[in-house]
UniProtKB/TrEMBL annotation:
InterPro entries cross-referenced by the UniProt entry: HTH_LacI (IPR000843), LacI/GalR-like_sensor (IPR046335), Lambda_DNA-bd_dom_sf (IPR010982), Peripla_BP_I (IPR028082)
Keyword set includes Transcription: yes
Naturally occurring in which organism (per UniProt): Agromyces aureus
Alphabetical list of Gene3D superfamilies matching this protein: 3.40.50.2300, lambda repressor-like DNA-binding domains
Keyword DNA-binding: yes
UniProt name for this protein: LacI family transcriptional regulator
Amino acid sequence: MSTSEHGRNGSSVTMRDVAKIAGVSVATVSHVVNDKAGVRIGEDARRRVHEAVIELGYRPNALAKTLSQGTSRFIGLVADAIATTPFAGQIIHGAQDEAWKHGYVLLVANTDGNEAAENEAIAMMLEHQVHGILYSTWFHREIQVPEALHQTDTVLVDCFAAGNVLPAVVPDEEQGGRTATEELLAAGHRRIAFINTTTPSPAQTGRLAGYRSALEAAGADFDESLVFPAAPEQEGGYAATSAILESKATAVFCHNDRVAMGLYDGLREHGLRIPEDVAVMGFDNQDVIAAHLRPTLSTVALPHYELGAAGVRLLLGLEPAPESGPQLIACPPIRRHSI
């Protein structure tokens, strides 16, 4: 996937080769070679690019010429691991469907968190003059924006940068925590425990805030002793079981579905039934877990498909980006049989 032609020696010459010789960015080479209108580039930089083009014998191929005319129908998506993550791969699915709906094709690069591979992927997409790039992570977190992303329109998906330097779409963690707690309140529970993660993250703070606000709105006092920190995995939920039972809680909101799975195991070892003795609510809607526990797990879904679709809409200017902060995507409840 490289905008290149054969040089004088018969080897493939890319824009990156020209950029390296000229001491400029790939984007600058693209603008000069394609005579992009309205772009300010100094005469010295232009001269160095032209000299490098002659030295290397670089000739843009037909694809590059087509793209330089502003007819690119490509959108890039650079991801750290979501293509190999069971449920977060829905981000790609949502972005792909939305792109196709508007006449664009998605170019996907999965980098496995490798910085060199990430920079290479972004450079290749810039060579192809993509309409813009979606940059996504497999879990919601703050990132440092790769410098090359500032060379094209970029939307962050399931992540955000300090200072709101780029538009972003992320899950509404607080709303999700509030919704999970409201489901338990609606089932008649008032003494509701919350197993929260020990990992600092927007999910940790947002879901706790939602839990608190739902309790307060229902007139149920927030009791800090009912919040139990645990590793965000099956072992964490299992380890928290005894403390949960000692708290006399009748319902438990779990930070994620893996924690809920561990809690299921712990409750069964104590001879307790779900939901008759203790109701359980998860978070994530990781289908391989939630839909296959017995009883099936009520949970709140992370809106991965909609995150991808919304990212494309922001990139294409079909929806306005919020003036401050990321665009929040709602986390819907998935009602099954554990409450």
